[in-house]
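Researcher: Please predict.
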Amino acid sequence: MTVRWDIFCTVVDNFGDIGVTWRLARQLVAEHRCAVRLWVDDLRAFERLCPAIDITLSEQWQEGVQVRHWPKDWLDTEAAEVVIAAFACQLPSAYMDAMAEREVTPLWMNLDYLSAEDWVIGCHGLPSVKYKHVQKYFFFPGFQAGTGGLLREEGLLERRRQFQQDDVAQRIFLQGLGVDRAADTRLISLFAYENTGLASWFDTMAAGPEAFHVLVPEGRVLADVRRWLGDEGVEVGAVHRRGALTVQVLPFIRQDQYDQLLWCCDFNAVRGEDSFVRAQWAARPMLWHIYQQEEDVHLEKLEAFLRLYTEGLCGPAEKAISGLWRAWNAGQDMTGHWKSVCEQRQELAEHAQAWCLEQASRADLATALVKFYRNWI
């Protein structure tokens, strides 16, 4: 029998939460034949990722997933066999009662934020709180054995490999976004939060000997781009050239298109969680802008990932990429760090591919969740 899954998502940071849960819901349906209801409290944010969404509907089907608007005034709903509270969101009290009233107790999991910190392995899969007799469990995505792994659809790496080897396919895709890639120009994607370090980075590229073309999908970093351009227009499609640097604003694009954008680029600057993972599957050098937390807790997570990610790099390459990440996340001057990264380009590119293959050797997150359920029953 088809197992029913309910996934609850509260949209906190624009697109990261819904981006992860939307990918997960689709994969559970397509690859594991689960019946999935995705409960979302903000359909407008969801619409940016899935333009087919009708934000006026309380219930609709998208790519095999039953999408439900999560209303403030909850209606009585039968609980599913598997319940996922994404990123520790609080379930409606009436739904929790419905879980407790089921004849067969459901599996209730908190799908937590991605982290490379050592303590995650010890907490993954452990019981959490109880509601009446319904036990909740921790489920942590991660980069090491003993965690839940990363979201990765079946065949993703092979599709990426074929695309990256097909110059014609890349050119057609970029032209569809209005991008004309000049010969001997290195492409960079930039999806980030506001960052005071951007001006020094752009200044360095503009004054350097190499040609760079930075593609900036609509997002929060555009305010900094506008300031660097001297309040010139940064509307979608705008192309600005200053020295060796070309800056182009792209429209907000669907997840599958964003994957292809990452695959086209030589270097990817990403933010949050969803784009962070997709950049790793792109197997290209990258720069992560981690979501800022109170008391700089996020910096501990940044350092934990860097310790894992830089294993095996030579000293200069490790120093270059770590310095760049730390400067970017502190909003500091990027000049020297970017020059060092460019000098270590070859090793960093080879390392990105090796890291991608290492992560792909483990079970993906959706498969791990399904296996956890089967073991639980």
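Model: Residues 49 and 256 are 10 Å apart (CA to CA).
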